[in-house]
Each structure stands twice: as structure tokens, then as C-alpha cells.
Specification:
By secondary structure, this protein is mainly beta. The chain contains one helix and seven strands; from the N terminus they run ββββββαβ. A four-stranded mixed sheet has the order 1-4-6-7, with helices on one face. α1 links the parallel β6 and β7. It is globular, with a radius of gyration of 12 Å. The chain starts with a strand and ends in a 5-residue tail after the last strand.
Length: 92
């Protein structure tokens, strides 16, 4: 449970991210029951050079937050069906 980084070109503030073992995903957020926001984009910068984003079972995380992260990180590959499963059903 939680979120993490895979080492496929993800950087946080210019530093390489940690490898998680999900070769196709650079970032994942899985089973976070109270997660509502991903990032304060005015305070932090994130670039993902390769890989995709994966979100699953985050009931309070609005899809707008996920799409905002996709745009801001520069992920070139389009989302695939299943990359955003079961998110936002309890978002306010």
C-alpha cells in the first residue's frame, strides 16, 4: 500500500528516483484511502522521462489531480485502460 517511484527516468528536483521494479510505470499510487492531492506544483517540480503513471484504489483522489500530474510531468505515453482504476469514487 502506498505510492512510489520506479527508476525509468523519473526525477524529483533534479535527482533520480528510486527503483520499485515496475518496469512500465515511473510512478504508482495504490490503495491510499485518504489521498486527495498528489503534489503542490507551485512548490515542487517533477519530470518523468520514461514510463507511465499508475493509480489504483485511491477513493478520494479526484481524476483531475491524476490528469494534472500526467500533464505537468511531461509523460509522453498516453494512458492505457487500467492505469487509473478505482479512483475518485469518494472525492469531494
Amino acid at each position: 500500500m502506498g505510492w512510489g517511484w520506479a527508476g525509468l527516468g523519473a526525477e524529483v528536483m533534479g535527482k533520480p528516483a528510486v527503483w520499485l521494479g515496475f518496469r512500465m510505470y515511473a510512478f504508482s499510487a495504490i490503495n491510499n484511502q485518504n489521498l486527495q492531492f498528489l503534489w503542490d506544483w507551485s512548490q515542487h517540480n517533477l519530470t518523468i522521462r520514461a514510463g507511465r503513471l499508475f493509480f489504483q484504489l485511491n477513493p478520494k483522489l479526484c481524476m483531475l489531480e491524476i490528469h494534472k500530474m500526467w500533464e505537468r510531468t511531461g509523460v509522453a505515453e498516453k494512458p492505457k485502460e487500467g492505469d487509473f482504476r478505482n479512483n475518485g469514487e469518494r472525492a469531494s
